[in-house]
Every structure is written in structure tokens, then in C-alpha cells.
Amino acid sequence: PEFSPLRRASALGRALPPTLLRPALRDARTGWWESFKFAAAVRFSAPASNVVVHADDRGHFGPAAGRAHADDVALPVAWLLERGDAGEGVPIADGAAAGEG
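-> C-alpha cells emitted (101 positions)
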């Protein structure tokens, strides 16, 4: 089976749970536009899906320490808390959340 998130998103047919995509503008591994294309495909095939894209000027692993690191960690936490479900079942598409960082 071919792995193609964009093709799968185009054929969803059902809403996804709230999803936060966090592309990094200076990521050498993936293009930031890929998250926007994925979000557009999900929104087109499942308009009830709540897909948020937050692009920022960081590299693949994000800031290492200090205020920038705190802000980087606080963003998805605040996003989850805003939903009121403590993040149960909410996927976060981010290298650090996927165990890459």
C-alpha cells in the first residue's frame, strides 16, 4: 500500500478530530507548504474538520532553550486546553510530538 497523506486526506469522507499542524518554515526535511496542502485537502473532503495550521520561523527541531522554547511548548498546550478535552484523541502533527525531537 502506498503511503500518501495527501491522497488519503482527499478521500476521507468523514471529519477528523481537531488537528494542529505545525510546519517549520526553515525545516530542511519537509516543505512548509505540505501542511497547507494537507489541510486544504482535509477541509475540501471533510468540511466539518477543524484543521489549524500554525507555521513559524523555526527549524526541524524547534528552539533548544529559553523563552522561544517555552513559547514553542506552550502553543500546542494552549491549543489543547482551548478545546476543553485535555487533548484526548487529538493528533498533533509535529516532529517533537512524533518522537523525532
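Residues 95-101 have pLDDT under 50 and may be disordered.
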